[in-house]
Amino acid sequence: MTHPTPEEEDNLFRLLRQVDIAPAASQRAMAAATGVSLGRLNALLKSAIARGFIQISDRDSTDRRQRFAYTLTLKGASEKARLTDRFLARKFAEYDALHAELTGSTSGFVPMNNRTNLMNNLSPIPELYVSYDSAQKLKVEAADLVSHDLTPRQICDLELLMNGGFNPLKGFLSEADYDGVVDNMRLADGTLWPMPITLDVSEGFAESLEIGQDIALRDQEGVILATMTVTDRWTPNKAREAEKVFGADDSAHPAVNYLHNQAGKIYLGGPVTGIQQPVHYDFKSRRDTPNELRAYFRKMGWRKVVAFQTRNPLHRAHQELTFRAAREAQANLLIHPVVGLTKPGDVDHFTRVRCYEAVLDQYPQATTSMSLLNLAMRMAGPREAVWHGLIRKNHGCTHFIVGRDHAGPGANSAGEDFYGPYDAQELFRTHQEEMGIEMVDFKHMVYVQERAQYEPNDEIADRDNVTILNISGTELRRRLAEGLEIPEWFSFPEVVTELRRTRPPRAKQGFTVFFTGFSGSGKSTIANALMVKLMEQGGRPVTLLDGDIVRKNLSSELGFSKEHRDLNIRRIGYVASEITKNGGIAICAPIAPYATTRRAVREDVEAFGAFVEVHVATSIEECERRDRKGLYKLAREGKIKEFTGISDPYDVPENPELSVETENVDVDNCAHQVLLKLESMGLIKG
């Protein structure tokens, strides 16, 4: 097989580019734009059509000289993206050689591994989208392809792949790139990239594909966003990924939990061809692609831009931190909050954006802007800080604020923080020259009452003679939950008002009581008694989601395999979360034997209110003795398969909010224990 010469590759690149941007052009215009004769153009067209890069069709035109129309195929769009890189690499090399001949030294413009380091913060960066006309034709072609319905996290990743936010990635990582990123934060070609961006799918879906096959990537409503050519398919070592990327294979880390319990078992890799961006109906004027932000910075004349990453509401300490960062870098300020997936339990992005907008007038309008970033965070601490820096570099920023415990997920299973408070700053500092974006590091900010100002905690020399005030995130949540005062030195009144609208005092919030235990343990009986007691108190609607009731009305088609039992519990969790979100009380009483599924339900509910897990700790022997339905007897005889406690495991809750014993204790007493717990948590009034 003979390899094409650079001249042949350049001609093919120019042809594919011309067909993409001007599919309706005449052959004469196409030849002129490509820089070849009409005869050479025809030869190029025939070759490209034969290789499957271009599709030919009859043109609906009265001009007899333009009988045919040409459009890029999916394969052609992928080839154009590949040739774009090779074309630019050769041109950069030619320029560097000419610079060396004229000056005797290298230009310094040719990057060692990829061209993105060449670009300043104002010039456009590559996107993976095809032109509008090509996209309309690709939609029709892609409709016949095998489809993958993207998860919310995958949609976030795909959007940033397509719009250049993840530049230099051209798609989901290949296996070689994945291995390099996991092991040493570098792609196979040596380019710095700290976070695996992979398309995780089920085993069944992966087995249905062939290497080289094109698939359509759809959002959750079935809209085709892109196509992908599958070049790699592998089973990852997820324990290794957890250790290397997140520092520990510990499911207390939300990303590790996602990796083991939600992500598909198989990874696919390959280049992506963008057809259209995901649709966002909220805060449209605040959402900008990297190139849109770069164009804005060009228009405003901003040569230096410092980005502030946040997934929390802005309080006065954040304002002081950003003011100091802009002064230190002598730069304009971009407030760039994440509105994709963050940590379970975080304030929802709708509330946060309202909070940001409420305090924007506290910033100088001429030097401050805000834009929303649809990023799915991994909470990977040091690696995440480097990743965030590269993403902000792609968005046109020259500086990036890295604070204390940047993107930290909190405590591990042993109760210790996953990362040190300044680990992220140290790793960022190691790589910032290569990244091409400068870190502005800041310590923990606290309020000095005597001076009525915020100062870095580590820099207060007279700390023994002044009053230092601070409110932690935990303390803020407690004050909101209990309706206590939040002082103005800590936050802006407008922010507190927005937070109180979303998070009223606990006694006015919805919540879920989730009973779990063996069959026959007494869950349903206690749940019924609790429901009656709560209805007697009044104030909020109460809904009972008993296991048998749900099986009859919501899950009648499900069996009792692990997959179906998990699905049944997730359905219960979804309904409970909706009840909680709307201010009601949900009482759930399934067996729910698996800890990972209970955790998933907890995360669903805690996005809107409290989740109270009650372990009905009746022994298996007592449950078997009470067995009115004869289920345990049938399970012992092997007539019921996968029966919890007999032939299938039960994960005993490690840290339930309450554990109740039912042996020799009446039902009313057990229900009263739950009421007392709810009262102590502030969920009901005493």
Automatic annotation (TrEMBL):
Superkingdom field: Bacteria
Keywords assigned by UniProt, alphabetized: ATP-binding, Kinase, Nucleotide-binding, Nucleotidyltransferase, Phosphoprotein, Transferase
Keyword Phosphoprotein among UniProt keywords: yes
SUPFAM superfamilies named among the record's database cross-references: Nucleotidylyl transferase, P-loop containing nucleoside triphosphate hydrolases, PUA domain-like, Winged helix' DNA-binding domain
Catalytic activity, as annotated: sulfate + ATP + H(+) = adenosine 5'-phosphosulfate + diphosphate; adenosine 5'-phosphosulfate + ATP = 3'-phosphoadenylyl sulfate + ADP + H(+)
Ranges of residues in domain Sulphate adenylyltransferase catalytic: 286-501
CDD domains with a match to the protein in the record: APSK, ATPS
The protein's role, per its UniProt record: Catalyzes the synthesis of activated sulfate.
Name under which the protein is recorded: Adenylyl-sulfate kinase
Species: Sulfitobacter albidus
Gene giving rise to this polypeptide: cysC
